[in-house]
Amino acid sequence: MEVRIEPCYPEIDAHESRVIEDLKSSSTQPIAEPSGWLDEEINRNILVTTVDKLLNWGRKTSLWTETSFTACCTFEFISTSSSRFDIARFGMEVLRSSPRHSDLIVTAGTLTWKMAPQIKRVYDQMAEPKWVIAMGACGISGGIFADSYSVVPGYNRILPVDVYIPGCPPRPEALLAGIEKLRKKIEQSSISNKS
Amino acid sequence: MLSEFGLTALFIVIVLGFSVSLVLIPVALRKPGIVPHNPSDIKSAPYECGLDTIGPTWVQFKIRYYFYALLLITLDVVIIFIYPWAVELHNLGASGFWPVVSFLAIVGTGYVYAWRKGALEWK
Amino acid sequence: MAELILFPASIRSELPFGFWLHLAIFAIGIIAILLTSVIIFIWFERRLVGRFQLRKGPNRAGPFGILQSVADVIKILTKEDIIPSRADKFLFWLAPVIAFSPVVVMLAVVPVAGGALLADLDIGILFIIAMSSITSLGIFTGGWASYNKYSLLSSMRVVSQLVSYEIPLILSLVGVVMLTGSLSLDEMVNAQNVPFILLQPTGFFIFFIASLAEISRSPFDLLEADSELVAGYNIEYSGMKFATFYLTEYCEAIVLSTLTATLFLGGWQGPWLPPLVWLLLKITLVFSIIVWIRATLPRLRIDQVMGFAWKFLLPLAVLNILLTGSFVAFWPEAPSWMIGIANLVLLIGYILFRSRFFKPGGVTVGAS
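YS: structure for the whole thing
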């Protein structure tokens, strides 16, 4: 039996380019750094500081990373998670493939506009609370491709980035320092500090 | 002996209650805002690595282990016969051994037939 | 004192409200010990796998990182609960319960000391076999109800593994039953003057491999193959429902270790130390072997998994039944070392014989 494939590629391509153009035109400005993540209502809770401390400790100690890496900084992440640098010391060796299970998205590498809707969708589908680390020069500003028509100039155009790690690529020590910064940030994310 | 079954049944009820409460804890914690809850259309769509899902999920498709499942049903019944025999074998002695050997031989013939027919290949 | 803590059935009838006291002590005890050991064993596995890979493993949370799993629990408990809009809502909620409950219930018939167990069922082994099949149904329900193509495929694989490995698993225990002459686990432990692993190495071999497949641990963790199935059957589950599945996996591993320790390693029996300590030590030993296997072996292909069960383990299990049965039927007073040696010869001979058919280089295991 002959399987006929419908020639529907032009429509799919057109749809994809529409989605990308929409995203491109709607994200010309960087998204501001998020400061708080708990709901406003918890303000009314008396136990707030104790609860906060416990939750923050739990959340900073088990940051599970989503495996959605776009480009070459990934290899620095892999080397960070293997024997010599051992990200597992912070309880982070659990790499989950599903955004439902993960807390952290490390945007390792260059992001093209073609890939941007997918990354945004993965971030949108992550269960809250969630954090973003922009890793590498391309993740921060587009790096050497900043002027390119096809490269997103920094992840903060589409995602609210928490920590930026410079370098091209950042060394594992830099990544660990960035993770340490994120842990500090999670620790301080109590209601009283919320602006 | 009945009391042992009663204990088991009560334990099953306790464990069921425990696991139901385990699953319901986040619902209770949602009220004071400890568990965040911001549903959206994209968030509750199926996750397929960042792409839209195409077509329905609940479709008929070939599961490939139809023959295995048939053999499982046959052999499961056989096992039910073997267990009481195994318990009483040291009392039955040799007279209880040969009937089950012939029984296993019949089932084994069917197994060899299924093997030769290719029912045990993953196709 | 130890008598009272372990609460054997003999003193149950002497106390007022003995029945309810017995139920309360054992129900709370089993659930508490199981959950505590899950938390410790998750940390233990992560540390051990770290050591196997020349890493340190989690060591920041608490002393030696022992609070790592506690942090995981806190985090995952307070994570958002996502319910897919197109999922079958009722089954989506029900699936973790179906998966988790039978694993805990299995421990009801496992003795922690002589006569000290929740319910001394005279069909203990059958009860365990029945309960062990239900967990896979829970996983299948979850995968189907999520309305996700990957989780559906993954849950289909669960059923295929269940279908394949159930037969060898059940048949491997027949040898133990024949040597004991009872289906009660309490009497099985009492019968083990010599641990059954020495008398039934073939049965142990089949039981251990088949139960690794039943609980989908490495190298049979096809249902969680990241490269093919994203995250497996629990891809749409988040928060506590995902944690319940995660808990189920580890509880299964611990219950498997408990059963292996009880059926083949002499259970609570052992000199000097209290029975419960011996049981926990043996559980830790078996669990470490499971972690060792996980750190060593790569994942198998699905046709290899199925072929291994149907073409390798099943004939071996039947041969084991015939060998042990002929000893029990014709020569009941045979010295136990002779049964053990005959069984070991069967195992080694079978592996050597069958490995003639195995060609390294891609041919399926057990291809004729």
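YS: worth flagging: The helical segments of chain B are 2-30, 66-92, 94-116.
IM: good catch. Also Chain B has three helices and no strands.
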